Amino acid sequence: MQPNFSIQGKVAIVTGASKGIGYGLAKALAAAGAKVAVTARSRSSLDALVAEIAAEGGEASAYELDVRDVAAIRTVFEQVASDYGRLDIVVNNAGLGEGMAALDVTEEYWDDMIDVNLKGVFFCCQAAGRIMLEQGYGKIVNVSSQVSVVGIPDGVAYCASKGGVNQLTKVLALEWSGRGICINAVGPTFIYTPGTAERLDTPEFRDQVLARIPAGRIGTINDVAGAVVYLSSPASDLVTGTLLLVDGGWTAQ
Ligand code: NAP
């Protein structure tokens, strides 16, 4: 018997899909045959993505969702499950990444980072869990980071938020894995996106990053998509509560 990598016909939600990694993950899931509900704070920011997926023969629809709004998370997830009749895959990608030196961190900056990157991820997992536990099947993939397991200067709030994502992923795996749910995290290294372009376009910063990646290159969205599609497929049915690092060896040092 061969491992089954197919997600054909599965129903997926991707948060923060208007640009960057989320945009690419939605396209990858759709190309692999999933019906994808794409979400971001503004519905119109998703028009291009929905059209692109349709033009490539896939199926997608857009839902407005600010992951800081806990009530809205539940409403949107239930709406998707009702529109498609089920919910098989949730990719919690929405996140903020702007760095700040520890001494400059304000309460507002800290709260923003934690609200989106940690609290938002948890309540999306909870909303997904409510639906998936009932149907006895589900795959949740939380987009963490390599800096969930190592530190980076100016990353105090970001690293703390992503470390928290790893921990909540483990706990939810303990609670839900015997009931048909797999929940995992992926930990990318630096990926070139609108969120990182300004920093990665600065030669000194880019050189510092490359010096830390044994594989010798910045990551691509496709590198992350490979991990996410795998963790969304039956091939990973015994994989739960783990962090799959997509970091070119950064954290192996
Ligand atoms: P990005 O280009 O800045 O895109 C961020 C996405 O998150 C956008 O679609 C944005 O949508 C959405 N978002 C932000 N705040 C939101 C909110 N309150 N509610 C809903 N959606 C919100 O970021 P990225 O670089 O693709 O990063 C995506 C994820 O990968 C993040 O979790 C990030 O921490 C993680 N990651 C990135 C890298 C990297 O190097 N790029 C490395 C490791 C991990 P709207 O603004 O349209 O709502």
Automatic annotation (TrEMBL):
Transmembrane region(s): none
- Residue span(s) of domain Ketoreductase: 10-189
Claim: Oxidoreductase is one of the keywords in the record: yes
Keyword flag Oxidoreductase:
yes
Q: Which domain of life is it from?
A: Bacteria
Provide a Gene Ontology MF annotation, just one.
oxidoreductase activity, acting on the CH-OH group of donors, NAD or NADP as acceptor
Write out the GO biological process terms.
bile acid metabolic process
- Mind telling me which InterPro entries this protein's record contains? KR_dom (IPR057326), NAD(P)-bd_dom_sf (IPR036291), Sc_DH/Rdtase_CS (IPR020904), SDR_fam (IPR002347)
Q: Which UniProt keywords apply?
A: Oxidoreductase
The family assignment reads: Belongs to the short-chain dehydrogenases/reductases (SDR) family.
| Protein known as | NAD(P)-dependent dehydrogenase (Short-subunit alcohol dehydrogenase family)
Species of origin: Cohnella phaseoli
